[in-house]
Amino acid sequence: MDLRVGRKYRIGRKIGSGSFGDIYLGVNIITGEEVAIKLENIATKHPQLHYESRIYRTLGGGVGIPFVRWMGTECDYNAMVIDLLGPSLEDLFNYCGRKFSFKTVLLLADQLISRLEYIHAKCYLHRDIKPDNFLMGIGRRGSVVYVIDFGLAKKYREPRSRVHIPYKENKNLTGTARYASVNTHLGIEQSRRDDLESLAYVLIYFCRGSLPWQGLKAATKRQKYDRIMEKKLSCSSESLTRGLPTEFAHYLEYTRHLRFEDKPDYNFLRRMFRELFIREEYRYDYVFDWTIFKFQHTIEAQKDDQSKQSQLPNQNNNNQNNNNQINQNNNQNNNQINQNNIIQNNILLPNAPKNQVLNTLPKQSPLEPDNQVGFPRKMIIPDGQKGQIVYFKSPNRAFIPLATENGASRKIDQ
């Protein structure tokens, strides 16, 4: 059966679920472009999809915010068509053996802090910060982290008056208990500090592989939430981040000590993690753990194929000699192709010295997608040594590596 929304979007298989509604793979029947389609039954008790689409449109134009293609009602469903994105950070976390390297966590932290700063600047709280709600882009934007699922988002101040919502207590827990802030567990109205505290738990989860309050058993959901809250209250920043760089404890302490209406110092938090990144001598090459895993798995698959081919019986010596010559030529060609692909896609070599890459710059900076608002195009800066990176700051303080004519390395403040 050919199911469509907005006349030109065909609905395919289910690919996920959000806080309100299911998400399906879709395709634009005119252009062939793939999209994501979120459906919500109109009979649901508290419909949220129209509200969520308005938030997406308010946030539209920001880096890491999906674009809404169409919103409307078809038959018994509200439908929202948005950009198709890649896997979630939770999916990639599982793919990488449920632990990320410090480099990957710091690369993610830099983008995620900027995403929350942008959302907060638009007067909204996300209120459901978790790895499932951060997705990687696809294609040229494959290194950009996107934020999705604004079904629980809330305006914390009026854009014109700038008046903050009032402090309240006895609120029900909104969001995901595993990553909820302590104040959210205590029933206090959420504000900007709570999104950032939730992000702290996400980053620690990525570093450690789990959080101390996972797997707690209880008879009811309310009792389970209480047990999680008690465990969080008993965990100091130092104990929760033991074995991690001190910056993670400092980040958590900072967020826990913010007052209800305080504006967080996003620059301070980003700078703290960037200094750790530089101290560890990492590179802003956007090579994440899953990039390396994929490369290694590809190499292993190629070896398996070659091994199977070498075990095939040959009909005669002439065929064997011919096959050997063909295989040798193919291997040489494949090695050349693989080397070129590695150089173009900036893959970290598994056996190379620490942080060595064949090419220090992706084809396009992931923080510079199609000249979006606030992000200048690539610049060409002459002279310098080949293979280095130019860094400069964009208006949202994200580092953008820029190509140079001869690979010159400079640091430019805008």
From TrEMBL:
Residues binding ATP are 38
* GO cellular component terms attached to this protein's record: cellular bud neck; cellular bud tip; Golgi apparatus; monopolin complex; nucleus; P-body; plasma membrane; preribosome, small subunit precursor
PROSITE patterns assigned to the protein according to its UniProt record, in alphabetical order: PROTEIN_KINASE_ATP, PROTEIN_KINASE_DOM, PROTEIN_KINASE_ST
Query: What is this enzyme's catalytic activity, as reactions?
Result: L-threonyl-[protein] + ATP = O-phospho-L-threonyl-[protein] + ADP + H(+); L-seryl-[protein] + ATP = O-phospho-L-seryl-[protein] + ADP + H(+)
Q: Which UniProt keywords are listed?
A: ATP-binding, Kinase, Nucleotide-binding, Serine/threonine-protein kinase, Transferase
Cite the EC number. Answer: 2.7.11.1
Q: Which GO terms describe its biological process?
A: DNA repair; pexophagy; positive regulation of clathrin-dependent endocytosis; regulation of autophagosome assembly; regulation of ER to Golgi vesicle-mediated transport; regulation of protein localization by the Cvt pathway; regulation of vesicle fusion with Golgi apparatus; ribosomal large subunit biogenesis
**Which Pfam families does the protein's record reference?**
Pkinase
The terms under GO molecular function for this entry are:
ATP binding; identical protein binding; protein serine/threonine kinase activity; protein tyrosine kinase activity
Query: What is this protein identified as?
Result: non-specific serine/threonine protein kinase
